[in-house]
Amino acid sequence: MKIYGDDIYEQNVDTLYDLGHRFADLIKSRKTIELALEPLTNIVCFCYIHEAGNCNIDEINIMISEQLLNDWTYYAVSTKIHSKFYLRVTFMNSLVNKTYLEQLLDNIEKIGKSETTLEKKIK
Fold it and tell me: Under the phi-then-psi rule, with left for phi > 0, alpha for psi from -120 to 50, and beta for the rest, what region is 57?
């Protein structure tokens, strides 16, 4: 703090919080991804939703979470809100950009729509 002062840390926190809000805006623009609630910080909770009514959405989101973690490309953990399973990301790297965020959402949609996922999770 002696070298950089308080300003650099404040800017970093602001940047990370802004990333959470930008990611939430991207989620809202997708038809197959639902925001759990408006983020207040750099933590965003959301889930994949499938148009087919005969799918267990929680199970599909669990599979998405597992595949993302196994691939080591994106780090999305999970949480439950009102007994519903959600993916959760926490932004800690201020170098994350819009392209990265869109690729994460594209990947989630790809996994959620895959035949392998759907075959395993039909009710």
Answer: alpha
**Closest by CA position to 123, among listed 57, 24, 51:** 57
Please compute Rg for the chain using Cα positions.
16
Residue 9's Cβ-count burial label (10 Å; 0-12, 13-18, 19+) is exposed
Q: Tens digit of pLDDT for each residue in 73-97? A: 778 888 888 888 899 999 998 888 9
3-state secondary structure 69-102: HHHCCCCCEEEEECCEEEEEEECCCCCCCHHHHH
* Prediction pTM value: 0.82
Q: What is the spatial distance between Cα 89 and Cα 45, in angstroms, rounded to a whole number?
A: 7
Distance CA 109, CA 68 (A): 12
What is the spatial distance between Cα 19 and Cα 95, in angstroms, rounded to a whole number?
A: 10
